[in-house]
Amino acid sequence: MNITKLELLNFRNYNKLKIDDFSNLNIIIGKNGIGKTSILEAIYLGSLATSFKTNNDNLIIKNEKDFLKIKVTLYEYKIRKNLEITIDKNGKKSKINGVTQKRLSDYIAQYRTILLSPDEIKIIKSSPNIRRNYLNIQLSQLNKEYIKILNDYNILIKNKNDYLKKMLINSITDTRYLDILDEKIVELGIKIYEYRKNYILQINKYINEIFNNFKNGDKVQILYESDYSSKNKEKLIKELKKIRNKEMNLGMTSFGVHRDDIIFEHNGSNAKEYSSQGLQKLILLSMKLSEVEIFIKDYNITPILLLDDLFSELDNNNRNKIFKTLDNKTQIFITTTDIKNINKKITEKSKIFNLDERMI
Question: Cβ distance 121 to 280 under 8 Å?
Answer without folding.
Answer: yes
